[in-house]
Specification:
By secondary structure, the chain is an alpha/beta fold. The protein contains 16 helices and 13 strands. The protein is flat. The structure holds guanosine-5'-diphosphate.
């Protein structure tokens, strides 16, 4: 497809900076460049993908607006697949707005959010997974999330989906042949594609299995620190965050609200929450704070339960340990104040929690044992082997839902074939599965879903 209108937007963030970039895409882009640009060298040949230095002026040529670098990228070898102009000027919002105004005065339309990416998709320059990866690369909050986004931007997920698709197209061909030539093909001659269907099921199950880890990597892991008052929760948050976020005192019940901070561990994003100490509340405010803790623990990806190793375990500790029994897959026990003499030993935990629960000695105040705690937190990110490196990880809920749909269709098709059903309905199910896969790459997608996806992009992208 080719759009007839030409769009423009400021592609750099609002505010003052060294440089600012305006992007223009559409058939009028080269002409707009010629109208507004005065090259400093006489031999400006407007070669594609070459940056030229010069002045940008008003359309009537009377007023100098800025000194810029101008690059024309001719279609189809541009990001959008259309003629694209990039004007790199000084990063003053006033200059950027004035240049943009000149462009709109000459008939350019202001781009909607994500419209450059939408055009790239509609012109076949990228598939939908790559467009979504682009947004992910821009908003990535950690090195690992950035890596996954980049791998998907290179098209790795799209390639994987295409492989699954090819197998299913073969399966469908076999099933349709069985429908068309049912009289000529005996039951023994028609394999009816169970192998292709099973391979696709295995591939889809693998992709789905990466979702939880991928979400943890891209959105960050929520770590909630809990324990009775005065065990050192605020000290731990402060030490991990490397700054004084929470108040540390000997007075129990000081932390009443949730106190959060985000840190990076081994290139991964970790959202830490310090919570009110769990005990019988002394007043309404403390009760509110403790209610919040239970809600927060429900949503946690990892819970660090702090115990004070320098004092005997209490009923409050016991209560918390009992609660953790339901969540042993996401609990790390940290026995704090290891710098003080121990009042109890690890054997006291043995009959309270299963052996596989990670139990570490730390001193939140002096920092000992915190490296081991950080490693234990990172272990919760460990992705399926090979999946993150080649970008096969599923990071979008939209992709997950389409894969679940395809899986349901293929399971139904497989079951029907296994029970000796005639091929018509299995063929229908395989076709539905193909449609679900095509929604992921955008090969077949409804306009309203497209609008929804691209409207979440930033302007200028
Ligand atoms: P919270 O109520 O659980 O948040 O506990 P705080 O972080 O406010 O700490 C309560 C008291 O324990 C403060 O006096 C801290 O200095 C002290 N504390 C915290 N961690 C340690 C530690 O590792 N060793 C020692 N000796 N004291 C600690």
């Amino acid at each position: 497809m080719t759009e007839t209108d030409t769009i423009a937007a400021i592609a750099t963030p609002p505010g003052t900076a060294g440089l600012g970039v305006i992007r223009v895409s559409g058939p009028a882009a080269p002409e707009l460049g010629r109208l507004l640009f005065r090259p400093s060298s006489h031999n400006c040949g407007w070669q594609s993908h070459h940056a030229y230095h010069g002045d940008i002026v008003t359309a009537d040529g009377t007023t100098l607006l800025d000194e810029v670098l101008m690059t024309l990228m001719r279609r189809p070898h541009s990001f959008t697949g259309e003629d694209v102009l990039e004007i790199s000027c000084h990063g003053n919002p006033l200059i950027l707005r004035t240049i943009l105004e000149q462009l709109t005065n000459l008939g350019c339309r202001l781009a909607r959010p994500g419209e450059f990416s939408l055009r790239a998709f509609l012109n076949g320059r990228i598939d939908l997974t790559q467009a979504e990866a682009l947004a992910a690369v821009i908003s990535a909050q950690s090195a690992k999330a950035h890596q996954i986004g980049l791998a998907q931007l290179k098209g790795s997920l799209g390639v994987k989906i295409s492989e699954l698709r090819e197998g299913l197209v073969d399966a469908l061909a076999l099933l349709e042949a069985a429908i068309d030539f049912s009289e000529d093909i005996s039951e023994h001659e028609t394999p009816l594609a169970p192998r292709q269907i099973q391979e696709a099921v295995t591939g889809i199950e693998f992709l789905l299995s990466t979702y939880r880890q991928a979400r943890l990597i891209t959105c960050g892991i929520n770590v909630v620190i809990t324990g009775k008052p005065n065990v050192g929760k605020s000290s731990l948050l402060n030490n991990l965050a490397g700054r004084k976020k929470a108040i540390v005192t000997d007075i129990p019940g000081t932390t009443r609200d949730l106190i959060t901070d985000t840190i990076t561990l081994e290139g991964l994003c970790v959202h830490l929450t310090d919570t009110a100490g769990i005990r019988e509340p002394q007043d309404a405010i403390e009760k509110e704070g403790i209610d919040l803790v239970w809600e927060c623990l429900e949503k946690a990806d990892v819970i660090v339960l702090l115990l004070d190793g320098s004092k005997p375990l209490t009923n409050e500790d016991d209560h918390l340990l009992r609660q953790m029994k339901k969540r042993t897959d996401k609990v790390i026990i940290a026995v704090n104040k290891s710098d003080l003499p121990r009042a109890w030993g690890p054997d006291q935990l043995a009959d309270r929690l299963p052996a596989h629960v990670n139990c570490l000695d730390i001193s939140a105040k002096f920092g000992s044992g915190l490296d081991a705690l950080k490693r234990a937190l990172c272990a919760h990110f460990t992705p399926n082997s090979g999946a993150s490196d080649n970008g096969y990880m599923i990071t979008q809920l939209r992709h997950k839902q389409s894969l679940e749909q395809a899986l349901a269709n293929l399971t139904a098709a497989g079951d029907l074939l296994a029970s000796g059903h005639s091929p018509e309905i299995p063929a229908f199910e395989v076709r539905e599965a193909l449609d679900a896969l095509d929604e992921i790459t955008g090969r077949k997608i409804q306009d309203d879903i497209l609008d929804k996806i691209f409207s979440t992009f930033c302007i200028g992208k």
